Amino acid sequence: MTVIGIIENNSYKIPMQTVADAIIEVLKKWGIDKIFGCPGTTEMPLLASLKKHSNIEYITTYLDGPAVGMADGYARAKNKVAIANLHAT
Asked: What distance in Å separates the CA atoms of residue 58 and residue 51, rounded to the nearest whole number?
């Protein structure tokens, strides 16, 4: 876990991490090795966390439809969970 801060409350310390780091940690535990997506500016923390802490490959598409199709095809071909990360406005 990446600690970005510590909250001290009397006698114990609670390590803190970003939401993006927590998401990446869960995806790694699930065995995810690729994310298919059409990122926007709101995904920048997730992409930064991927770059720092992970060997998960982010495959970028220009539109949402191809990202979903690629994730679906990957899931069917590999018989495993695939992730499509889409930017909604």
From this structure: 9
